[in-house]
Amino acid sequence: MRGLWADHRSAVSEKTGLSANGLDTIANTFAAKDDEAARDLKLVDALMYRDRLLADIKERMSLDKEKDIAFREPGQVPAHRRR
Question: Is residue 82 a part of any domain in this protein?
Fold first, then answer.
């Protein structure tokens, strides 16, 4: 588990500019207790409602704005297609 945390902490530190010790403190004190706290701590880039998130995904992927995005539960994806 420590190796997993170290890898994740390193990636988050690189993206956010927060130090490893700072991220440890955030995790150990549960400082990111809700969505706004996580945003204020720079752990997420933005907070969005579902409709804005879907519009953002469509825009980033150059998808038709009028079509729905089909989502699947992980169990619905064939085993050979999972990463």
Answer: no
